[in-house]
Amino acid sequence: MSEPLIQPPVAPVPEPPVVGIDLARLDKSLRRPRTAFNFVMSGLTTLLTLMALVPLFSVVLMLLVRGGSRLSLSLFSELPPSAFEQGGGFGNAVVGTLVMVGLAALISVPFGVFGAVFLAEVGPETRLAKVVRMSAKVLTGFPSILAGVFAYGAVVLVTGGFSALAGGIALSILMLPTVMLTAEEAISMVPSKMREAAIGMGATQTQAVWMVLLPTAFPGILTGVMLAVARAAGETAPLLFTALFSNYWLTSGGRLDFMQPMASLAVLIYNFSAMPFENQVELAWAAALVLVLLVLTVNLIGQSMSRKTME
Question: What is the model's pTM?
Answer without folding.
Answer: 0.81
